[in-house]
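REQUEST ID: PR-0412
SUBMITTED BY: lab tech R.K.
PRIORITY: routine
TASK: structure prediction, single protein chain
INPUT:
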Amino acid sequence: MAPQTSSVIECPPTKKARKESAPGVSGHPLGVRPLGNLYLDSQGSSTTARSEITGDLRVLGEEILLGTILRYLDGKSLALLGMTSRAMLAYTGLDELWKELVCGNENYRGKIEPAEGGAYWRDTYYRMRGGWKAPRVDCRVYSDLLYQPFLLRNLPMPAEISSSKSNIERVDVSDLSVEDFVRRFEKPGRPVILTGGMKGWSAMTKWSSDEYLMEACGDTVLLCGSGDLTMRQWLQYWKNGGCKEDGQLFVFDGEFRETCPKLTKDYEVFDYFKNDMYDLLNGTVYRPRNAWLMVGGPGGAS
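STATUS: complete
OUTPUT:
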């Protein structure tokens, strides 16, 4: 079975934190604060509370407002509703709402033009609908529901978590024959991490180059979870801030060998996986996919 091939791209450094943000986190683009900060508000005005500036909709509660009303509105309706008050601008500006409008639209498949800015998907939607500029307003709304997604995608991962030790045995491929692999790991069903097998792969250098990836598959539409992007668009998405999303898009494509054949010359399948029982199904529609192209930044997960 062919291995999963991957490329991990580091995320740009976080900008300098602004006042009223969590340590190491830049300010929310629409001025949303954690709910607890309301009690420390120096203005001492009750109009900063969500319940005072959302009109009759305040009786619904923010979970119902977001989950059963706003998520079913189209982009124009969201934009118009956001003009009614600072609070509604904050709630209609939740980036997940705009992400669904962009990635869930079949007409945008392979045509997404990522924009820059903190309100990432809202700006992207505006750009694709004619280049409107999303407003930048300090809404001064206090809501954990709105602030948490922003916090999660900007909060640095503690070193003790990212450097946790693995208890799975590691074996260098130069010290492991196919027969030993079968005897020690395949037959008893023991997991193992193989190391040193990619030293001769040209992918180790070529796939770190944006220019090479765009040459190899820049205009090929790739499966990216909830949305489909070309490699060129994904690289633009990542550079413009997509890597800081709570649920970031990452390439997870099982057809790259057919759509991006140039990439298949950059790696070699380990001897341990060159043959498997599924070979009996080669040439048929029943042969399951056994290799995926995975490209993403730190924090990406399936």
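NOTES: Residues 143 and 231 are 36 Å apart (CA to CA).
REVIEWED BY: pending
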